[in-house]
Write a structure and sequence with these properties.
The structure is a single chain. The protein has about 325 residues and is an alpha/beta fold. It folds into 2 domains: about 290 residues, Carbon-nitrogen hydrolase (Nitrilase/N-carbamoyl-D-aminoacid amidohydrolase, 4-Layer Sandwich); about 35 residues. About 35% of the residues lie in helices and about 25% in strands. The strands form 2 sheets. A 6-stranded mixed sheet has the order 5-4-3-2-1-12. A 6-stranded mixed sheet has the order 6-7-8-9-10-11, covered by helices on one side. The protein is globular and about 90 Å long.
């Protein structure tokens, strides 16, 4: 394994891919959690202003973190009667056209099923004309953070969830097609929040044909803590396992780019070197390698499963062997 790693790194020669801009607004979770209409408009304005600050810079994709669009993007605003929904739906059109770029924006999706309202944690994709070009609904939700497990059997558990409404699991992985200013095309997927801690999900995106992956997250829950560093470190493993570039837009940090060899080659920080709980934009090029499915992408966790199975067999054999030896020692001669 070590020899293979050395060989791969010696032959690692990535090429420059699409230019991506990560927007980090540093919105406190307290403001998002108990926001009124004025707060929501301010959040939208802050992210819009940060996005407009890169006007004139050629970029292929601009990314907002998880749930940073405060309004609903997939429902006719006339049905809700909310000003924030109107503003939220006008914003992607304005940004994509003025910046001449594609957009990936994190927001909440609402689906009406009869009298029932079904909510999803989603990523919306828009082309350069501002037209919606697909959506991904988060598949792996955080228990007691986004939904209440077994709430039909234990209703009191709903009191442990911070939101009055629960989210619903998405059912399908989505690949988005990115057409660049250099007239190239790439397919990419996105994970939302802690989905980059799920190796099997990222692996399936790679098998689906993703050239690179994005992660949009709101780590504002954890303020200026080591969780932000730990979350980024986990993403490094996903990049190495699947041999592709991963980049992330995080509301309070740490927005960054990770290359297929696991190197964090770009990270948003301020003039003092602070990289948590700051706002700004980070522009970088996606690093690409020859497209193929490495061992982990192809085989998944079978190697580790076999190792655990072999260890279990050896433990059982040692116990059995020990008992046999003990019986022989205690037998009368």
């Amino acid at each position: 394994i070590l020899s293979y790693g050395v060989y791969w790194l010696n032959h690692y020669k990535p090429k420059e891919g699409p230019t991506v801009c990560m927007v980090q607004g540093n919105i406190p979770q307290d403001m998002k959690f108990e926001s009124n209409e004025e707060d929501e408009i301010n959040i939208l304005k802050q992210y819009t202003d940060l996005s407009m600050s890169v006007k004139g810079t050629p970029i292929d994709l601009l990314v907002w973190p998880e749930t940073m669009v405060p309004g609903l993007l997939n429902i006719d605003p006339e049905l809700t009667g909310r000003k924030i929904d109107v503003l939220s739906q006008l914003t992607p059109i304005q940004l994509s056209q003025e910046l001449n770029t594609n957009l990936l924006l994190g927001g909440i999706a609402l689906t009406l099923a009869g009298d029932e309202q079904i909510y999803f944690n989603s990523a919306y994709y828009y082309n350069r004309e501002g037209k919606s070009d697909g959506c991904y609904d988060k598949i792996h939700l955080v228990p007691f953070g986004e939904f209440t497990p077994l709430k039909n059997y234990f209703p009191f558990l709903t009191k442990l969830v911070p939101y009055k409404i629960g989210l619903t699991h998405g059912r399908h992985r989505t690949l988005f097609r990115l057409d660049t200013l250099q007239h190239e095309s790439f397919d990419f997927g996105t994970s939302i929040c802690y989905e980059d801690t799920v190796p099997s999900l990222i692996r399936k995106f790679k098998k689906d044909g993703a050239d690179f992956m994005l992660n949009i997250t709101n780590d504002g829950w954890f303020r200026d803590s080591a969780e932000l560093d730990q979350h980024l470190a986990i993403m490094v493993f996903r990049a190495v396992e699947n041999r592709f570039c991963m980049a992330r837009a995080a509301n309070t940090g740490i927005s960054s780019f990770v290359s297929p060899d696991g190197a964090i080659y770009a990270k948003l920080s301020d003039s003092k070197g602070k990289y948590r709980e700051i706002s700004g934009t980070l522009i970088g090029r996606i690093k690409l390698v020859e497209k193929y499915n490495p061992f982990y992408t192809t085989c998944g966790d079978w190697f580790s499963i076999l190792c655990v199975a072999a260890l279990g067999i050896m433990l059982i054999m040692s116990v059995v062997k020990g008992r046999i030896v003990c019986q022989k020692v205690t037998e009368p001669k």
